[in-house]
Amino acid sequence: MDANNITTPLAFLAGTLSFLSPCVLPLVPVYISYLSGNAAAGETTQKRGQTFMHALCFVGGFTTIFMLLFGLPATYLGEALNQYSEAIARLGGLLVIVFGLHALGAITIPALNMTRRIDIAHGASPGYIRSALIGIAFAAGWTPCIGPLLGAVISMTFTQPAAGLFFTFVYAMGLALPFLLTALLITRATNLIRRLNRHARIVQRVSGIFLIAVGLLLVTGQFTMMNSFFIRFTPEWLAERL
After folding, report:
1. CB neighbour class for 143 (10 Å; exposed up to 12, middle 13-18, buried from 19)
2. What span, in angstroms and rounded, lies between the C-alpha atoms of 129 and 29?
């Protein structure tokens, strides 16, 4: 699989938009507080480092679940249905467009507005295994809400069969890196998140436009052509390092 294509940055962008979505972003400080117990209460280097390690375990938990529940099946399905990949990608594109319309508020899909939040006693003793388990629960509970963007990534996979694990991992990193940065710079990042929350509707609309654009590329069969186009103009020195 050639990782040097337009699908890779789009998968990462989908993960970042998931982090900025109204169902995830407002609760990021709460999650970090839960994860680290009292570790996030101070600003010493040791406490920030401890908070970051808990966030790393959390990220590892949800990345593992995304790859096992979505990436691995998509990989096997892509290989098994290779000869039908073009038709499946176009059907997936139609579904992604529907997701985009939902994000824009043009239609409402109740199932995509459902989330299951984790109730954990605040100030509980930190444990790295506990943080990983919270990450696993996050992946399960928030999947309906971030499902449209994750679904777009899985649909893009069918333009390149057997790429499910890779693109799901890239998506998870797009979601994980802002979270880790927030954990590392907890006070300043929390203040920034509060300001970003005021623009949550804009982020949701951008996500909707992103989904519709990806869906149209998949439906019209232009996605593979765009990959080939960008690969042609990628410098050789960059391609060798990817």
Report:
1. buried
2. 20
Q: Is the pLDDT reported for residue 177 higher than 90?
A: yes
Mean of all residue pLDDT scores within the chain: 77
Angle (CA) 135-136-139 rounded to 5° is: 90
Axis-axis angle for helices 28-36, 45-66 (nearest 10)? 110
Q: Which of 1, 73, 21 is nearest to 210 (CA)?
A: 21
Name residue, tokens 């467009």. Answer: 97
- Euclidean distance between CA atoms 73 and 79, whole angstroms: 10
Span between the terminal Cα atoms of the chain, in Å: 11
Work out the burial of residue 182: count CB atoms within 10 Å of its CB; fewer than 13 is exposed, 13-18 middle, 19 or more buried. Answer: buried
Residue pLDDT, tens place only, 86-140: 788 888 889 899 988 988 888 888 777 665 555 555 545 557 888 888 888 888 7
Domain ranges of the chain: 7-239
Determine the pLDDT at residue 189. Answer: 67
Model confidence pTM above 0.85: no
Task: Find the angle CA(130)-CA(136)-CA(142) to the nearest 5 degrees.
Answer: 125
> For residues 118 and 35, is the Cβ–Cβ distance under 8 A?
no
Q: Would residue 20 be called left, alpha or beta, if left means φ above 0 and alpha means ψ between -120 and 50 degrees?
A: alpha
